[in-house]
Write a structure and sequence with these properties.
The chain is of the alpha/beta class. It has helices spanning 36-46, 60-63, 66-73, 85-88, 96-102, 172-183, 202-208, 210-221; strands spanning 2-8, 13-19, 25-29, 49-54, 77-79, 114-116, 122-125, 128-134, 143-147, 150-154, 157-158, 161-162, 191-194, 200-201. β3, α1 (36-46) and β4 (49-54) form a beta-alpha-beta unit. Residues 12-196 form the Metallo-beta-lactamase domain.
Length: 234
């Protein structure tokens, strides 16, 4: 399997390209701000043809370039229905300060072809089987994508931290439930490719991430969940 990624734009959001091998069809995950040039470079380098764009959630730093990417390649965008409204009105998912900073006359619309994700679905795209897990808490419509031994975690789980929950649609108790049900059951060797920052593994996060470690210990002892602290993402 071929997986290539690069951090896009001022938010440094990881955009990923996934294909069975070079020279084949691929899917694009989370084309954020100014992602088009970097994406085109990856596609040329590996001779790939996109067949779909997959969005882990609707925050603007993950979907900024979805319309030009889908339009240039005539491919659909996939998003959970709980976050679909953010495609055309991303301000609904942001703080007032961020809205004032970003939206100086910018207008957003949906791609021409939008398809909705459901929990537990298996997408058969580009010769891949991609499992969708609904993982709310960062946003109501956050999801993760899994292919064998790899999870694209969006802003659910990072190396050493988790997604922030203080924006509209976020909820701390909900993200802890998502971490417990979506991440903890995975094998330690599962590679985690997050929406921001370096890759990690489930085993490393289970052992060192204070949130995942706390949940793991809570499940074992019946104690309290970890308290809210520094988190990442837009």
């Amino acid at each position: 399997m071929l997986v290539a990624g690069f951090p896009a734009g001022s938010f440094q959001t990881n955009c990923y390209v996934v294909a069975p091998a070079a020279g084949e069809e691929c899917v694009v995950i989370d084309p954020g701000q100014d992602a088009v040039e970097g994406l085109d470079e990856v596609l040329r380098e590996h001779r790939l043809k996109p067949v779909a764009v997959l969005l882990t959630h609707g925050h603007i730093d993950h979907m900024w370039s979805v319309v030009p990417v889908c339009g240039a390649r005539d491919v659909p965008a996939w998003i959970h229905p709980e976050d679909r409204e953010l495609l055309s009105d991303p301000a609904k998912g942001l703080s007032l300060q961020t809205r004032q900073m970003l939206f100086g006359g910018l207008e957003f619309t949906e791609p021409d072809d939008v398809r909705e994700l459901s929990d537990g679905a298996t997408l058969k795209l580009a010769g891949l089987e991609i499992t969708v897990d609904h993982a709310p808490g960062h946003t109501r419509g956050s999801v993760t994508f899994r292919v064998p031994e790899i999870m694209f975690s969006g802003d659910l789980l990072f190396a050493g931290s988790i997604g922030r929950t203080d924006l509209p649609g976020g909820d701390y108790a909900t993200i802890l439930r998502s971490l417990a049900t979506v991440c903890l059951p995975l094998p330690d060797e599962t590679t985690v490719l997050p929406g921001h920052g370096p890759q990690t593994t489930i085993g490393r996060e289970r052992a060192t991430n204070p949130y995942l470690r706390g949940l793991h210990e809570e499940q074992a002892s019946g104690g309290d969940a970890p308290h809210a602290g520094p988190t990442r993402g837009l």
